[in-house]
Amino acid sequence: MRIPTLCFYQRLAVSLVAGFFLVIALLAAASSYLQTAIQREGEQRLHLELAAHLANDNPLLKTGVYDYDALKGLFHTLMILGPSFEFYFLGPQGDILSYSAEPGTLIKKQIDLSPIKNLIDDSSQLPLYGEDPKSEKNTKIFSAAPVFDGEKLQGYLYIIIGGEEYDSIIEGIQRSKGVQQFAMIILAGLVFLLFALLLLFRLLTAPLKRLSDDMDIFRASGFNLAASGVILQPWKNDSRNEVQRLGFSFNEMLKHIDKQWQLIKQTDGQRRSLLTDLSHDLRTPLANLQGFIETLAIRGQDLSAQEQKRFIDISLKNLHNLKRLIDQIFELAYLESGHVKMKLESFLLNELLHDIAAKFAIKSKDKNIQIHVKVRAAQTYVTADIEKLERILTNLIENAIRHTPEGGRIEMLITDAGNRVGLSVIDSGVGIAKEELQRIFDARYQASNTERDSNTHVGLGLAISQKLVELFDGQLEVTSDLGMGTTFYFTLAKVDHANPDH
Quick count: other Cβ atoms within 10 Å of Cβ 266? Predict the structure, then answer.
């Protein structure tokens, strides 16, 4: 049978109760022992010289001639005057020669003299206990003195302090109703204290239990905050209460996990959509390529040279589109992997922009589009990876040319941005609707006003550009008005033009 696991409060309560009663038992035992020891020591010190005074002052003992019957009568008389004492006269070897007890009550006939001699030799270490002639095992505090006849030792006067009658009276007092009531009051007070402590622990552990329950519910829901139904408690982070701070951290953790969970679901949805779209984009040029190649292979001899050339050109075009798509897929996957290495160097930014403008001179001329480079910054030395920066600008310029009608204008503008350099690519094209601006950096998204041409565009260029800009500790921003054009903007790290190598 499996024993159920106790909760934190139950374990704390059991530990508290066990520890409480253990401490009470130890305190009671220690208190009783100390009280008895102090009482015995006080009584023994008070009556320490009693035996010596009797031995020196009483004629029966002082003369050295002992009438044991007379001595027994003396002991009886002394017991009447002091009922808490028992009197014994011992021989030199500890034999009991005379005593004050009733006949037949003695169990021992001889007493060990070692405690008696220790008391006579050194009375500083009290209490000292001697044997009780009426008990086999009990010991009692005592007073003792040697009795001499001249120089000859005749024996010892041995007086038990707190004899059998005394113990009987004490036991009766302890069993009295008043003492029992007092003990019950003390016990009731301790029990009340115990329950008060248990209630206090209950109050202290209740927030922890609530936290634990919320964690269990949250875990059982698959770490979905909305589905779990967990109500976030108003924990305080600035409290000196550790539980409050723990609860606040738990709330923040729930929010963070839920945010990450929603992001994972969103990313998974985007991944599925991306795979679906990419599989379609891959299938289209492959199908076209397959169709034209099969036509050439089967009917090539029946086609004219002009038709064969047209089929080959179309196949090459589909092949280039397929290669371009695959290259972009691998490039985006590489950027998202987080293992991109940067080759940073300092260079003059406007020189790179003029090179890029020259690279697109023929393509822009075909659409009668002008590309200009403008500089509005005090200096244009930047630190960046030239290859990746050129990739960003190439994507942006290609995108601008595709969406700018004939006779339009594209401008690459350099501006000051505090301790960085701002770089803008501005076109006078068709623009982008405001509700679509935040989605144009999503892979495979194409705005509704995209200009169509004879080439296939898979919509990965801006997503790649955004990832590359993030490598430069920047953010690719976009502003646009329909019919007025679009501006893409990001910043680069600035270097001192006087010392561009640093």
Answer: 10
Mapped onto helix, strand or coil, the DSSP state of residue 113 is coil
What sign has the CA pseudo-torsion 280, 282, 284, 286?
Answer: negative
Amino acid at 54: L
* Cα of 173 vs its chain's centroid, Å: 58
Q: Which residue has the higher pLDDT, 405 or 20?
A: 405
Whole-number Å distance between alpha carbons of 196 and 24: 16
Nearest to 372 by CA among 399, 407, 410, 402: 410
CA proximity to 125, closest of 44, 29, 36:
44
- For residues 331 and 463, the answer to whether their CB atoms sit within 8 Å is no
Q: Model confidence at 170, in pLDDT bands (50, 70, 90)?
A: low
For residues 394 and 328, what is the distance between their CA atoms, to the nearest angstrom? 13
SS3 state of residue 201: helix
- Amino acid 253 reads M
Look at the alpha carbons of 19, 24, 25, 31 in this order and tell me if their dihedral is positive or negative.
Answer: positive
d(CA 487, CA 481): 9
User: Parallel, antiparallel, or unpaired for β 129-131 and 485-494?
Assistant: unpaired
Asked whether residue 18 carries a pLDDT value surpassing 90, the answer given is no
Bridge partner list, 490 = 423
Across residues 59-88, what is the average pLDDT?
Answer: 67
Nearest to 127 by CA among 137, 115, 109, 110: 115
Residue type, 169: I
Picking from 93, 94, 103, the residue whose alpha carbon sits closest to that of residue 69 is 103
Question: pLDDT tens digit string along 41-61?
Answer: 777 787 788 877 777 777 666
411's enclosing H/E stretch is: strand 409-417
- Greater pLDDT, 50 or 355: 355
pTM of the model: 0.45
- The full set of domains in the chain, from first to last, is 47-175 (3.30.450.20), 242-337 (1.10.287.130), 345-494 (3.30.565.10)
Contact 14, 4 (CB under 8 A): no
What are residue 364's phi and psi, to 5 degrees? -70, -30
CA atoms within a 13 Å half-sphere pointing along the CA-CB vector of 502: 4
Stretch (H or E) spanning 479: strand 477-481
Q: What angle do CA 366, 372, 375 make, to 5 degrees?
A: 165
